[in-house]
Specification:
Blueprint: E1 4-7, H1 13-26, E2 32-35, H2 42-46, E3 55-60, E4 69-74, H3 80-92, E5 96-100, H4 108-124, H5 130-141, H6 147-154, H7 156-170, H8 179-186, H9 202-212
Parallel strand pairs: 1-2, 2-3, 4-5
Antiparallel strand pairs: 3-4
Length: about 210
Amino acid sequence: MADIVIEAIVESEDVKKTLFLELDRIAKTSAILASNTSSISITRLASATSRPCQVIGMHFMNPPPVMKLVEIVRGADTSDNTFYATKALAERFGKTVICSQDFSGFIVNRILMPMINEAFHALYTGVATKEDIDTGMKLGTNHPMGPLQLADFIGLDVCLSIMKVLQAGLGDSKYAPCPLLVQYVDAGRLGRKRGVGVYDYRAAEQAKRSARL
């Protein structure tokens, strides 16, 4: 009986489409189905439902309780009523809303992920150490954290998935994932959630656990 359902599962188009098919079956006919996808086409997700005019992108930045931004993305058939209801809900949450057309990566990740990918290329080709790459971007461009540290925070598997979506959706080789990013994901080095990514967090986590005992 929910008026709006916000999907926030794994960043896989096939998995999301399967869920949207099920949501379309169980949600009331007037319900809005929103996706927290950070890169996947809303139009294609909507095609899995019988209500494409009520499907919309509602991309919360990570972590949602802290970050002020919500990126709203209209699919090809998203209605004005769906858009305005979703925008009003985001504003009730105290968020600042930006609106994107339904192109791969939308606004934030269209810009952010190539920067992170380029940081991996700089590390891969030996331009600088990971520490100097991150320090350069923090102090040189006033970013709160460096791109490699941010990648670890987001999850390297998520970064890789988004780069693949950008490359497939925009058809430009400049979006090809850096081989080092691919290698880290293949090795299970996914970032903070696994304890190791570009940086190794395992010793610090173990020290925290020991301090609690």
